[in-house]
Amino acid sequence: MKSILFCLSAVVLGAALGGTFKGKLETFVDSALEKTGDLLTSDDFSKIQFILYTKYKNYSYPIANAADLLAEPAFDAGKPTALYMHGWRESNESGSVGVVSRAFLRRGSHNFVLLDWGEYVKGDYAISVLRCTAAGEAVGAAVNRMVDAGLDRDTFWPIGHSLGGQLSGVMAKSLDFKPSRITALDPAGPAFGIPATPQLSRDDAVMVDVIHTDAGVSGASSNDGTIDIWPNGGTRPQPGCHIGETDLSDSLLFCSHHRSWEFFAESIDDETAFPAVSCRSWSAFQKGLCPVNDSNVVYMGFAAPATSLKGTFFLRTGSEKPFGLGVDGTRPASAEDAEEASTADHVDVTDDTAATEDSADAEDAVEDASEDAEDGGEDDAVDTHDDATTTSTPSGGLVGLLRRLG
Ligand SMILES: *[C@@H]1O[C@H](CO)[C@@H](O)[C@H](O)[C@H]1NC(C)=O
Ligand SMILES: *[C@@H]1O[C@H](CO)[C@@H](O)[C@H](O)[C@H]1NC(C)=O
Ligand SMILES: *[C@@H]1O[C@H](CO)[C@@H](O)[C@H](O)[C@H]1NC(C)=O
């Protein structure tokens, strides 16, 4: 059995780079499940802990008693509750947990609870993936009990990184209610999307916002949310990470993957650091075809985007902390870059594409843009803001962005 799992694991990890691989994977997973089903589903997951973080103490509750956490005096029933789910080979000791929890504690707006399932995801990746379904159901049942005990379901906010992003989807499917929001930070890609391993979907919450930073390698490369945000195009290497990530230390190997929670943590401290603009594709974004207006921007991360906004969003970030570029991040790296990208595809950026009043959507813009040649995507974007500033309808979050421009 061990060798099958090893083999499976190798294939799963190899999968990250292959395309025609799904059928084979399914066969492998089926056979592994046949041989290990008991191991993977009969566990009671009693070693999962719900840990309430406060400045002075962390309060741990085993999953069976998770609802008792609500009676803890440090738990503030008047605040929304964020449930953070870590990834493969992580635990309460991991960097992501430290960074995200400290940002939440600084902000003080939420109860921060860590779902520590480190005991179940510390080994082989394939086994960890296959455990996701049963673990998610166990966690969902615990959350249902917490809601019965008084947890506010309307503001309950699961946030999951990597395998934890996928876990949040499975968990949501076994809740008695639909969460208003799930945030997935580069949800795990390899081995998801086959029947044995259902993946996070946009139906798992009213709003599912996904931040992609290592799509196609550690992270999923599909648009699975109601809002999918693709910083720097969403793939490795993210700025500041190196393409030759051959050193096997986790921080290098997963540098791009980890940007997802680094960006998220920064957004807790600075909600408006990462405006992202609705656009059809990264290449259209790079051509300057998606200028900001008063209804096509979401803030990546903490700030809850308006639920009416859906689709794919793009932005640039810096290569080191603080990563957020503000509104500069909604534009191509430079006007010259935009021009180059345009020329390469024989599409020019025109004033028309950026007109605030009657601009077509990005797709139409690509077609429209081909005739009237006038460059300057960046200027266009600025004009758009000026117009938008004088209109009276920006949403709360957008006001901040527009102020920054002023
Ligand atoms: C709570 O746990 C985190 C690790 O997840 C640790 O960094 C922090 O110091 C702990 N807080 C307290 C007050 O012990
Ligand atoms: C993580 O949790 C374990 C118990 O599950 C505890 O012994 C350890 O101190 C915790 N680590 C931190 C950094 O809080
Ligand atoms: C804003 O831009 C989007 C495309 O990103 C477009 O569909 C929409 O019509 C524009 N809205 C305004 C008010 O210009």
UniProtKB/TrEMBL annotation:
Protein name: Lipoprotein lipase-like
GO CC annotations on file: extracellular space
Gene3D superfamilies: alpha/beta hydrolase
Subcellular compartments: Secreted
Domain Lipase: 42-323
Main localization of the protein described in the UniProt heading: secreted
Species assigned in the record: Thrips palmi (Melon thrips)
InterPro entries xref list: AB_hydrolase_fold (IPR029058), Lipase (IPR013818), TAG_lipase (IPR000734)
Gene name as annotated: LOC117648007
